[in-house]
Structure formats: structure tokens, C-alpha cells
Amino acid sequence: MAGRRTTTERLGWFTDGVFTIAITIMVFQLKPPEDSTFAALLALWPTGLSYVVSYCFIAIVWLNHNHLFRFFPDVTPRLVWINFIHLLIVLLIPFSTAWVAGTKLAAVSVFAYAAVFVLVNLAYIPFEWHADLGRFDLPY
Predict the structure, then answer these.
(1) What is the enclosing helix (H) or strand (E) of 44?
(2) Quick one: which of 27, 32, 139 has its CA closest to 93?
(3) What's the count of helices (H) and strands (E) in the chain, helices before strands?
């Protein structure tokens, strides 16, 4: 047992679970309108827009994360910590989505929402550095 190493597949499963939790949190934060009219539903357009954008963003981040994991031969402690930091920031997406939706696109909440998106992307950069894609003969 002492010689067994954690596989990237196992770390990928954990990561998939965290992405699933982020999406689930967002879904649980959705609230239907009080009235049963189309006007009441239409009034929720900022909420719908923020949730659709967040869902698409999470999907893109997950796809990129999944793609990049193919280039790691094994799990290192550095990779685990890079992954944990990235996932921590990804888990800020449901919070910022709820805030921007609840404030009907107020300036400060939109700024925080955009900042979380930027932070998620900045946290992805160490993955790319750690993967060292230059050692592969890839077209990109």
C-alpha cells in the first residue's frame, strides 16, 4: 500500500464532484416568482441571465480542466494544491451568481461577479504551467 500513488483519474473524480456541487448550489438558489404570471417571470430576467452565464462558464471551465488533466502522467502534491485552490475559487461562482441576481445587476455585485470569473481563469494558469505542455508535440 505504501507504494501506491494517487491517479489523475481519482483526482478528476473528486474535481467532478466539486463542479457538480457548484452547479447544485446554484440550482438550489433559484427561486420561482411569487405570482403565477409571465410578467412575474419576465421580471426575473437578471436572475435567469446570471445563472445561464454562470452555468456556461462552469461548463467551459470543467471542459478545459478535464482536457488539461490528460497531460498529467501522475498526481503530485503540487498538482493537488493547484487543483484545490482552483476549486475553491470555482466555488465562489454560486455566491457571486446569487448576489448579482439578487441585486438585479447592481454595479458592485456585477464587478464582484466578473472578478470571480477573472480569478477562476487566473487560478487555471498554474495548471498550464504544471502540465508543461511544451514537452508534447501539440499543435497549440
Answers:
(1) none
(2) 27
(3) 6, 0
Question: Cell 439578487 appears where?
Answer: 102
Mean pLDDT for the stretch of residues 31-38: 90
Q: Tell me, rounded to whole angstroms, the distance of Cα 140 from its chain centroid.
A: 23
Q: What's the mean pLDDT when you consider all of the chain? A: 89
SS3 26: helix
Quote the CA–CA distance of 49 and 38 in Å, as a whole number: 16
Q: How many CB atoms lie within 10 A of CB 21?
A: 14
Type of residue at 77: P
Residue ranges with strand state E in 1-140 = none
Type of residue found at 11 = L
Q: How confident is the model over 68-110, as pLDDT tens digits? A: 888 888 888 999 999 999 999 999 999 999 999 999 899 999 9
Cα(114)–Cα(99) distance, rounded to whole angstroms?
12
Contacts of 132 (CB under 8 A, 6+ apart): none
Q: Is the pTM of this model over 0.70?
A: yes
Distance, CA of 47 to CA of 44 (rounded, Å): 5
